[in-house]
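Query form — protein UDP-glycosyltransferases domain-containing protein

QUESTION: What is the three-dimensional structure of this chain?
INPUT:
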Amino acid sequence: MGLFIKATPDNFVKVVKEAEEDVGIKISCLLTDAFLWFACDLAEQIGVPWMRFRHLLAATEERDQTLELIPGLQGIKINDLPNEVLMDNQESPLAHIVYNMALNLQRATAVVINSFEETDPAITTDLKSKFKKFLNVGSSPLISTSKKSTSTDENDECLSWLDKQDSASVVYISFGTVPSSPLDEMLALAEALEAMKVPFLKLLPDGFIDRASKSHGKFVAWAPQVQVLAHSAIGVFVTHCGWNSILESTSHGVPMICRPYFGDQKLNSWKVQDGTRIGLKIGGVFTKNGTISAIQHILSSDKGKTIRENVQELRAKASDAVKPNGSSTRNFEELFEVVTKS
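ANSWER: The structure tokens for UDP-glycosyltransferases domain-containing protein are given below.
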């Protein structure tokens, strides 16, 4: 992260100029990740609009203090906010980026979110009042699945195994590409799965698979996550709570068990458990008994039934949002108009 900050924005400006020369076309607008806050300066220099795209949840002393001032997040505690929001902007490279991103967001011609309005109506209303344009254009998993994924041996093996499992019975476990789970937590998770004897599909790094027990589950180095979550055999998703994973799970009606690690993941897990009520947060870290309780809660309890119903309702709203007259479709059309008229 430190190297990234040192290299920017000079390398960004250089690459933009090289791209223009390579294709022979002048850039008419900049649509960048919100972390690239310096893009707004370049956009002003070359006289084009800057649009900020974010693939995180729209909203991101005593740590147990409850906050009531953020629309749509009433009841959230300070401890549920990303650490980088609470740090001095010089304490870490990521905190520095978040700080500068927040300072420059209002300069954007449009703020574009990979989500859909119906998941956060209060937040959407509030942010529409704060930015020139605030556009939810997701859920991208529902848009991308309209194209059939390329078949590979890994894909086919994974999905074929799921075909043999009962409906809503499999625990799917994936923590993204960045988090590195502590060994003691992974052992506790393994002990819980072994004790429950539930079928599971778990992503493990290369080199670990050969050493893993394959009794009633399947270990893979990679899985086509959107296709996995769309499979009828999946009963619950154990996740690090990255926003893309939440959106993919929600879009296919799969409840979640959340173990956040850093960044927006704590806020996302609060939203899953206490906001939309479509899953549970692990109480701090994985323990054998805590994991067993969470899985049983989701798959077989009365409260779990309510969670499963909630996520199906949100799934329907996500599907409606990308229909021809849905909210995300209309927002995308508005985004297209802004880009093409630049």
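ADDITIONAL NOTE: The radius of gyration is 21 Å.
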